[in-house]
Amino acid sequence: MIGLVGAIGFVTTVATVLGFFGQYYWLIDLFAHFRIQYLAVLTPVVVILFASRAPYRAMFFALPLAANLAVVAPYYIPTDGQPDTVRIPVNVNSVGGTIRAVLLNVKTANKRYTDTISFLNKVNADLVLLEEVDESWLAALKILETRYPHSIAVARGDNFGIALFSRWPLTSSKFINLGDAGVPAVQALIDTPQGELMVLGVHTLPPINLEYVTERDRQLAAIPELIGQSGRPALLLGDLNTTPWSAHFRRLLDNSGLKDCGLGFGVQPTWPTSNWMLLIPIDHCLNSSRVRIADKFTGPDLGSDHLPTVVDFSITKPSNLAVPD
Fold first, then answer.
1. 98, 125 Cβ separation under 8 angstroms
2. In this structure, are 125 and 246 located in the same domain?
3. What is the rounded average pLDDT of the residues 242-270?
4. What integer pLDDT is reported at residue 231 of this predicted model?
5. Which secondary-structure segment (H or E) carries 123?
6. What residues make up the domain containing 245?
7. What is the b/e burial string over 121-155, where b = at least 16 CB atoms within 10 angstroms of the residue's CB?
8. How far is CA 128 from CA 110, 177, 243, 296, in A?
9. 0.70 cut: is pTM over it?
């Protein structure tokens, strides 16, 4: 029994360590994505070994346990501007209220159009970014035109169609190519009641081989320049096909100045819905400093292999224009 527990702990420890060196090779980077699973395995390993009077083995496995905990814990610690509070009601009629955005990779082959539309109506979002939309999806979503009179969309049959829907006018909007992947991203300026907001909708290539990983990383590397050029409050939404613990994701945050909207709200896995044991967070919301996150949570299974992500936020005034209390 102790030998089996130790073997499980050893394999998980190796995976834990490899995950910190993903910048050197794409296959190694895959080990970075399963920090929650490593915690779920190593915690009982340490407890069982201590209970079995094997303290040295237990302390050995407590080290990788602590390493995984260190990278996961920030998602459970309230941060400045992203407090751990009850959800703030959405009030789109008030400049002081919150704005709600929804991100959902619908999965092109998924046909649960009615369930998806019902969810969007129920969640009452102001901005909606949908990914993997094809002609059938866009046809089904035409019913949303009354709620969202402003939109930009491109249908594709290769799982890289993308659509942005908004209650408010799009001051400008366009499809852009990030890197050389040949798949569209959406860049739009939205005239919200709280001021202009730049929204960037991104769907990167999946890390299934070296070529795709290289192109995905080029897509991620192109984002900081876009954010810097804008100079406006910005919100990035997208299936980035990586988790917060990847070296490439951390580089994106460092170079762009964006923050992970999920900090303070817990780890919220979104994919794959078909296997809860392997669920990892690859659908992301990133915010600039003037976008204050009030809440973030996931929605129900709508037939896709991704769960929806819902974010409530507000746009703050520039610091030099702030009015003292």
1. no
2. yes
3. 97
4. 80
5. helix 113-123
6. 99-317
7. eeeebbbbbbbbbbeebbebbeebeeebebbbbee
8. 18, 20, 22, 14
9. yes
CA 127 – CA 6 distance, rounded (Å): 49
- Residue 300 and residue 164 in one domain: yes
**What is the mean predicted confidence (pLDDT) over 246-270?**
96
Q: What tokens does 169 get? A: 């006018």
On the question of a cis peptide bond just before residue 272, with omega within 30 degrees of 0, the verdict is: yes
Helix (H) or strand (E) holding 253: helix 247-256
Structure token digits, residue 32: 């970075």
pLDDT surpassing 80 at residue 307: yes
The two tokens of residue 157 are 């049959």
Q: Containing H/E element for 162?
A: strand 162-166
Q: Note whether 218 and 293 are same-domain residues.
A: yes
* DSSP sequence for 53-82: T-HHHHHHHHHHHHHHHHHHGGGGS-BTTB
Place of tokens 């090779």: 25
Q: Which of 270, 195, 199, 292 is nearest to 237 (CA)?
A: 199
pLDDT grade for 320, boundaries at 50, 70 and 90: low
Residue tagged 């990133």 (tokens): 286
